[in-house]
Specification:
Length: 476
């Protein structure tokens, strides 16, 4: 399909022809795309930052690409020699001690800290999602190894996305495996003192998992943790996010009714709303490349409607979620909140809101609440800067309005604790650690598929609201 602004025809239903592969990885087979069968990580899985099952055949050869430079090496050497954390602007009071970590792990801490510091310097916090929470997570992680493993996994995931290195992606999975192992131990001895660490690891891991079973189990578990912390939530590091989660209430849960014709119409509408941006980004190669990837993603969705299983829905949507996590960082680091960059990011978030009804098993809890805040913040910023860019915000703002109406968001007149039961038990129910392939890497457990009930769906939506608030809430 052409991305020329002169064409507004909706995507056609014919599937791109390709040679079938009988030996392709399971992820490519689920997504019905050609696998190039590259060992130990096929190119599609590397591109979309997911673990390829080819890795199950053994460890990846070669060293992780940590994107090292002479300047970074000097900063790491100075950190080890002096013990002084090289990013004082982040205000991390409980700083990680360099003597406790290997050179590779120290580099991962340095990378995630550097990204956060650069975003802070660019004053991009209102749009850069999770980076502004790095100081809080580092503070907790410095005293809790399993939280640190969760954070290092996120850092390695971003580096693997930048470098397309299978060995770096494998490193991310290893850290997540140790994080899940530590999280299970802490949940087995849950207490007020460990609750913030459990919640921090749960949030960090929920941002990283690449398969439906892991994500569903994490949301159910996170909901359980939030309920258990009700009695002391005002003392938690996450108190402000818990309070914000209760500001909005929703109407009764309404399952999405399958309607392929409607879904194809939605995708066609989204496609046509993206085309006018081609001319706007003329001469801006990076932005145009990002727009073309987004248009190609939307075009690909049209070909797979209707998608039946939750696993297939998750696999199709995961590339978009990866973009929503990492593109804002790389665009804003380069663009210093350039208006064209912000318009493009708003359309990525707008597409997420537009397509979530098409994928009821994962949509609202997976995308919705993580996209509303950035769009509204970008719009407020552009209003103060340039009206020409504001004129291009119609589609993202339309998607925010439809999402709020669809989810029946309304301000609560009073906050009632009804249905929330405080728990002082040392063990939390609702966790299924056999669902996590990363945990299986270090724990040797078989995987089982968690069952989902309407109650679980309510809990998952509440947990995703909380996690999204932790990502994009404006403020310190």
């Amino acid at each position: 399909m052409s991305t020329s602004s002169g064409s507004s025809n909706p995507p056609v239903q014919s599937r791109r022809s390709h040679t079938k592969s009988r030996n392709g990885c399971r992820t490519c087979k689920k997504r019905h795309i050609r696998c190039d069968e590259t060992i130990p990580q096929c190119c599609n899985c590397t591109k979309h930052n997911v673990r390829c099952d080819y890795m199950d055949g053994g460890m990846v050869e070669g060293n992780p690409d940590l994107n090292m430079t002479p300047q970074i090496q000097r900063e790491l050497d100075t950190w080890r020699e002096t013990g002084v954390y090289p990013f004082p602007s982040l205000g991390v009071d409980n700083q990680p001690s360099p003597s406790r970590y290997s050179p590779t792990d120290l580099r991962l801490i340095h990378h995630i800290s550097s990204v956060a510091a650069q975003m802070q310097a660019a004053e991009a916090g209102s749009s850069a999602t999770w980076t502004k929470r790095v100081p809080m997570f580092l503070r907790i992680a410095s005293s809790n190894d399993f939280v640190m493993h969760s954070l290092l996994g996120l850092s390695a995931s971003h580096l693997s996305w930048l470098t397309a290195s299978p060995a770096t992606l494998q490193l991310a999975y290893q850290h997540r495996g140790f994080a899940f192992q530590g999280l299970q131990e802490s949940i087995g001895n849950f207490s007020k003192e460990s609750s913030d660490a459990v919640l921090a690891a749960s949030i960090l891991l929920s941002w990283q998992v690449t398969d439906w079973r892991s994500w569903a189990s994490l949301l159910q578990g996170t909901s359980t943790v939030i309920d258990a912390m009700h009695a002391w939530k005002h003392e938690s590091e996450f108190a402000e996010f818990m309070e914000e989660k209760e500001i909005f209430t929703r109407g009764a849960f309404r399952p999405q009714i399958a309607d392929p014709q409607r879904d194809r119409h939605v995708v066609s509408h989204v496609y046509n709303c993206l085309l006018p941006l081609v001319d706007y980004f003329h001469g801006k190669d990076e932005e145009l490349k990002g727009l073309e990837e987004l248009i190609n993603f939307v075009e690909g969705l049209y070909e797979y409607i209707p998608v039946h299983s939750a696993e297939e829905q998750f696999a199709l949507l995961h590339p978009l979620r990866t973009w929503l996590f990492f593109l804002p960082i790389d665009f804003l680091r380069r663009g210093q909140q350039d208006a064209s960059v912000m318009v493009l990011l708003a359309h990525f978030y707008g597409v997420a809101l537009a397509v979530e009804p098409l994928f009821p098993a994962v949509g609202a809890a997976y995308f919705g609440t993580m996209s509303v805040g950035p769009i509204e913040q970008i719009h407020k910023t552009l209003v103060k800067r340039t009206q020409s860019a504001v004129a291009l915000m119609g589609f993202p703002l339309e998607m925010v309005r439809h999402f709020r109406e669809r989810m029946d968001w309304r301000r609560a007149q009073t906050v009632s604790p009804g249905g929330v039961r405080a728990s002082h038990s040392s063990h939390l129910t609702g966790w299924n650690f056999d669902a996590f392939p990363e945990y299986a890497m270090v724990g040797g457990h078989a995987q089982t598929v968690p069952t989902t009930t309407v109650q679980d769906v309510h809990g998952s939506i509440a947990a995703s609201d909380f996690i999204a608030s932790a990502m994009w809430r404006v403020g310190p």
